Amino acid sequence: MSQGQYDDEEASLGENEDIDENAADNCDDQVEEVQEEEPLSIMDPAVFGLKEISNLGKFTVSSHKPGNGVEQLRNDELTSYWQSDGPQPHKLTIYFVKRVGIRDIRFYVDYNEDESYTPTKIIFKSGTSENNLIQFAAMNMESPVGWQQVPLTGVGGEPDGNTLVSWVLQMQILENHQNGKDTHLRGIKIYAFDADAVQPTEPDNSVDTSGLAENQAAARLDDIAQTLAAARLESSETGFSLPDFMRDAEIR
Q1: In this structure, which of 12, 71, 82, 229 has its CB flanked by the most CB atoms within 10 Å?
Q2: Which region ranges are annotated with the description Disordered (predicted)?
Q3: Which of 21, 43, 66, 31 is nearest to 189 (CA)?
């Protein structure tokens, strides 16, 4: 083999190595993308003593495509969805039958399935009626897949300040991915504290009352003794003679 042929073969081998390295890098990138697209895992609300209160609300939407309305949003089937059919912002409004204390709000979106129909910018409002709603949260999402949790930190109610007190709750979808016009929302859940939930086991702080009766009896005897002493003092002043059983014992 000539020197020129040898050099050409080495160059060819070097190019093949570069191609293999690039292919490996591409595979790693694809794996990372797949990992990033896995649905977001959120803790079970029951773990925190929460129960769903979505049944206390009347759900309305600003628009919807026939066959893709509130019923499809609320049927607990993540394969179905609400699809808007009108101008932005797309609104989902919930009117509660009474004042509620909301501890958690979750909604389901799937960029892998919906692409340009997937929300990317959302704001949330709450109030006593639809005419006086106040924004309490905003979310910007990039290719979201799975259940998304609305931030409620510091919204006001309860000692920790993380309970949203509401009569009317509204979700406004301002923008979709790839400048999509209409939107898809596949589910929404609203949670409050469950008063009937089993509370975590607390240390036993009960007081041992086995000696309480004895202490109370001793206290009563002390009171009787003081009363008798007062009576004895009073009798000595008036010349009244105490019976023998009421006198102090004498050591003979």
Answers
A1: 82
A2: 1-38
A3: 43
